[in-house]
Every structure is written in structure tokens, then in C-alpha cells.
Amino acid sequence: MNELFTLDEDRVREIAEDTKEISPKAADFWSCTARMLVLFLEEYHWVENGSLEKAELAELQKHNTALYADILPEHYEKSYANPKYCAALFGTEYGRLAAALVYELRSMIPFLYEGIEDEIRIRLELFLEAYTAFTLEEEQYRALKESGEIPEEMGVTGIPPVKNLRKILYGYVQDYWEQELSLEVGRKLVGESGDGCDYALEIIKSSDLSDPRYLYRFGEYISDNEFRTWQHLQELDETKLGKMADTWTEGYRIGFLVGGKDFSSKETVGLIWHLGFEQMILRSIHNFEAMGKRCVCYRETQSLFGLHESEITGYCGADANPQYRYDHREDLALVLDDDLAGRRVEALKAAYRTWRNETPLYAGPAVMETFGEAPFTPGNDPAKAAYDKAQQKLISRYRQTASRAYNEAVIGKDRSFTIISFPLPSIAEGAPKGASYEKIFDAVLRINTLDYKTYERIQGTLIDALNQADRLHVTGRCGNPTDLTVNLWKLKDPQHETIFENCVADVNIPVGEVFTTPVLKGTSGVLAVSGVFLEGLFFRNLSLTFRDGCVSDYSCDNFASEENAKEKGRAYIEENILFHHPTLPMGECAIGTNTTAYAEGIRYGITDRLPILIAEKTGPHFAVGDTCYSNEEDNESFNPDGKKIVARENDFSRLRGREPEKAYFGCHTDITIPFAELGRIEAVHKDGSTKTILENGRFVLPGTEELNVPLDGLLQE
User: Fold this and answer.
1) What is the pLDDT of residue 163?
2) Burial of 278 by CB count in 10 Å (0-12 exposed, 13-18 middle, 19+ buried)?
3) pTM
4) DSSP string of 420-442, one letter each residue
5) Mind listing the pLDDT tens digit for each residue in 575-605?
6) Which of 5-9, 535-539, 630-634 shows the lowest mean pLDDT across its residues?
7) What does the alpha-carbon distance between residue 248 and residue 241 come to, in Å, rounded to a whole number?
8) Is 383 helix (H, G, I), strand (E, B) or coil?
9) Helices and strands per DSSP (H, E), number in the chain
10) The 513-516 sheet, strands edge to edge
């Protein structure tokens, strides 16, 4: 293996020095790409020989910037990783493939740091195979020209046909899918990489976390956000740091307890976080170890082998350029067909078989989300690769199959999770005067650690009223056109059963919601919101229409100033909310009760940048996709008052036994109506009488008025 690696490296270095054997039309592309690979190889040796460990902070920052320079916003316009730029030079089809090739080569950066030579080598060989195709075509072109022929008349241009380059990418994905998926499963659920160790865990445990140089050992892009986050955590006292970690890990433990699941049978916990928070992460690792659990740290990956799920699935640094990430979300469209989709399914199943003894011991992820980045609405250039209708169906089916395979491997009904969220320093940019990062951070810490007993009591009163309802009627105000009727589960034993779950600080931190699974038939109307961030993407004037619980129409105004605005808005929703399903059901109906979070968002001017984890607690919200109980419908769970939660399935998840491929969609997206846009929520009884729960953004149900105190504070200010 070392000999092959050396041969590949030597050839890449030769190409970086001389591309005369390539057509002048493509010489700069190959020269720039080869020099990029030489930069990567130099970095690999720099890490391997121990220079990384000895380097001063300024040198580390210089190296880090160099690795990501060409995709940073200020350089991306003329980067070969940009499909739009490549398409302008080579034409749309060739441009997409060229940019996808660069994208895949860039995916080797983490392996430079982890020292996984085989992962670097297969990408070098992809480059060399594609380069060789160009040299052979140019050789033929020159030979014909020297013999007096006109190469163009014979279909020879010095540039190989686009089908040849596509075939090379196709073969690469086909050949290595099983290897890559096995590596992914091993890292994500077991904690083993190609060299048999958990790279990130070793960094956190062995580093001096008071020295910021450790941040650059991960190989992720480190921006001012990550550095200032590290700085801020250095300034926090032990009490606050302990509170952050304890709230997170205790919520995880309670999630198993409330769900009636056996935590003692699990051995590993997955940690997902944003770099800069390692002081909290180390304390959390110690907390989990005290519970007898081993932590697994899995990196967020960007490669042709991934499907670019909407949520972050591993630890990560800064997003060097959201547009770059968005441009390559569907690069797999360049090669995907029925055969390749089938091979991916088989590769995934083989990966789970490889780790079949370890995956049932995985307890689930503990996720720490971050928020506060500058709002991002992506440019949607036609040069970007995109799935066609047939491929969308393949991807949708694959996601459903992958979800089932995952839940079989980890025994989904026995696992749990928890999620907490903290702001990044960029949250203060553009916020009102006096809204410093430190003040916003402290406000979020207060929100995350509110007294759950108070909310448990008030939410119990709310649930008692909702349990008597036949349906809910929700309307908007202040220009919000929401007019939605949600059909509710019918209780057979009100003394011992409940429709709504009383959600306190366990799996979804912070506290503050009651939720249920709607009855689909009879759930109809319009759900709208003036602006909302969903998985880091902004939606302006988002509107979804439901008929019998399923999305029947949708629109947004993100592209209002562009040609074909309506069609572009629909495509944006199809890709990022429906995930290419023709429709999705309403999987959740909930009322957020965390008026403190809402008030702090208004006070600091950050309402539009709150993550859905917090935003969903600041008003009623409705999820499209799977229910909150997907793959756990047959588990029993109870509210604190002892009542059994019975509204756990809908018409789709009910098929899980006989037609599992139709039961789940592999997605769940919450959409919140903020209190400022909420007109009324009323419980409608079977006889047509009503009881108002909220009116004009305030709780009016007797026993819930205490929730208005933070709102009163805003009015007084």
C-alpha cells in the first residue's frame, strides 16, 4: 500500500509541474487541481512527521486557511470547485462533472489529519484516472493532426467525451461504496476508523484545552466563530460549564427513563457538536463515562459517498462557504441510476452486517447544535447538479430503506437521543446595540436550564383541556394567512390515557411544548409563516396547504425578484422540506410554551436566527414527515401524571408491520408560527363548542396565565 501511495504521489507532483500533454483548453484546470493535491500531500506529511504538534498558532492558522482558500466566498467565484464557473468555461455537462471531481478530491482533507492513507490514495487514483483519459485523447488528437487529418471531423477534440468522465466517476462510486459505508458505520456507531481509533476523542482527551492550537488538529475549517467560542468558554466559570454539560447528559439519561428504555444495555453514545465547545464536551464525556458509557465522535463528511442529509450528522468546524456546500448537495445525480442505487442499498446492508455485534450497543446521539450564522438563501444556478424525477424517487426510496436498516441495526425502539443548542459569536452581528455575544449566550444558557417542574405543572393544565377536544383550530394574525384545522385522536379511557405528551427537558432541550400525532383524515387548511430557518436555510413567506393531513400545495417567496420565481420556490421546498417526496403527512401538532425563549429572542433581536430546537418552543408548530414516535410506536410511555400516551401513530406508520417501505419517510421538519403572528388556537369539542387556548399571541386558558409573564416584561420595556 505504501508503494502504491508513493507512486501516485510522485505522478501527481509531476503533473503539477507540467501539463503539456493535456489540451490547452483544460491545462489550467488540471494544473490547478494537481497543485491543490500537492498542497494536500504536503499537509499530510507535515502532520505525519509531527510538525503539526510543534507548530505555533499563527502557522496553524496559515495552514488551515490554505486548505480551504479556494472555496471561501471571496475566491469561490473563480474556483474550479464552483459548478457555475466550470460550466462557463467547459459547458454545463462538463462543468458539473469537473466541479464534482474537485469536490470529491477536497473530501480527502480529514484523512490527511487522521493519517488514513487508503482514503487519500483512492482519491489520488480518481484524479489520475481522469487525467489519463485527457492525455490519451490529446495524444490521439495530435497524432491525427500530424498525419494531416482533421481531428474534429473524426470527433476527436483533445477533450474526452463527457460520457468518459462520467463513467470514471461512476466506477469510482461503484467500486468504493461498500468500503466507504463500512467506514462510516464504524465511525458513527462504533467509534472505529480505518486505523481502529476514535480520532476526535483522542484529541479532546489528550489536549490542553486551554491552548487553542488543539482546534487545528481536527482538520476542519476554523473561523473566527470557532476561535471566539473557545475563548468565551475559557472565560466561563466551572459552575456554568458544569451546568451546560450536566443539562445535556442528564437530559439524555432521563430520555431513556421517560421512554421506558433500558439504558444499562447500551455501551456507546454518539457525540455531535461544533468545534470550540470542547471544554463542555470533555465534561460531558466524563459524565457519560460515569454512567458506564463510552463516547463516539463522528465527523460530518462531504463526499460523493454521502447523501448530504439536511441535519448535521457529526462534529464539524465552520462551514467555509454555505453556497459551496449547497452547490454539491446533489452531485450524485451525475451518476445515479437504478443499478447504482441498488448497489448502495446492498453496500449499506453489508456495512451493518460487518458491525452487527456492535451496533445494538449504540444508545443514540447526544447532539449539540449551534446557531447564529449569517442568514443564507442559496443561489440556485442551473449549472448545479440536481436529481431528475426518476432519481428523486430513487433517493427517496433509499432514504426510507436506510432509515429501516439503521433502526434494525441499532434496534430503534430501544435507543434515544438528546439535543441542546448554543449560539455562535456571529449571532451578535447586526443585533441591537448592547446585545453582545456574552449576553446572548447567558440568555440561551438560562433558557436551556429553566425549571422543568414549573412547565410540567402548567403544561399538565394545558393537556387536560386539549384531551377534551375533538380537533384544534389555528388561525394567524398580522397578515399571517394560517387557517388550519387539526383532527385529534379520540380517547377511549380519559382517566388513564392522554393525547398530548408533556415535554420537559429530556430529549429536546429546552423545556416548553406539548405535542401529539394528528389524525390525518380531517386535518386540512393552510399553515404559513413570514420567515423561518429550517436546517440552516431561510424560507420567506412559507406556505403549506394540507388536505386530509398531507401536503397538497406549497410556496415561498425566496426568489420573488427572479424569473420563474414560483417554480424556483416550489423546487426549493421540494428539495429541502419534502426531500423529493411527492407529498408528506403532518407528523406532529404541538404548542410551544417557552415564552421566555420568545421574549429573549425579541429582546436581543435574534428571533429570526433561533434554531428550530428553540423556535419550536416559541409558538405552535407542525412537523411534516414522520411522527415523533417513528419506530417506537409499540413502546409505552407516560406523562408525569401517569397517563399513557396513546396518539403515537398515523395512517402511514400503521403500515410498519405489513408494508414497512410505506410507513416512514426518513425526515421530520418542524415549522413554527411565532406568537406575534398567532391569532387564535381553540379546542373544538365534538358538540361544536369551543375553548380558547391562546388568543392574539397570549395564553388565555385558566391556569396557564403564568406563561404570559415574560411577554408582559417585553411590553414594559
Assistant:
1) 95
2) buried
3) 0.88
4) EEEE-GGGGTTSPTT--HHHHHH
5) 899 998 999 999 999 999 999 999 999 999 8
6) 535-539
7) 11
8) coil
9) 23, 19
10) 501-503, 513-516, 586-592, 620-625, 668-672
Q: Are strands 668-672 and 620-625 parallel, antiparallel or unpaired?
A: antiparallel
Which residues are 550's β-sheet partners? Answer: 547, 585
Which three three-digit cell numbers place residue 53? Answer: 504538534
| SS3 labels along 638-697 | ECCCCCEECCCCCCCHHHCCCCHHHCCCCCEEEEECCHHHEEEEEEECCCCCEEEEEECC
C-alpha cell belonging to residue 193: 476508523
Could you tell me whether strands 362-371 and 497-498 are parallel, antiparallel, or unpaired per DSSP bridges?
A: unpaired
Rounded Cα distance, 430 and 105, in Å: 36
Complete edge-to-edge strand list for the sheet that includes strand 294-297: 294-297, 268-272, 362-371, 418-423
The packing angle between helices 24-48 and 57-68, to 10°, is 150
- Cα separation, 362 vs 341, in Å, equals 27
Residue type, 131: Y
Quick one: DSSP state of residue 508?
A: B
Q: What b/e string do you get for 584-623 counting C-beta neighbours within 10 Å, with b at 16 or more?
A: bbbbbbbbbbbbbbbbbbbbbbbbebbbbbbbbbbbbbbb
As a whole number of angstroms, the distance between CA 55 and CA 61 comes to 10
Tell me how far apart the alpha carbons of residues 542 and 673 are, in angstroms, rounded to a whole number.
Answer: 11
Can you tell me whether residue 630 is helix, strand or coil?
Answer: coil
Residue 141 in grid coordinates: 488528437
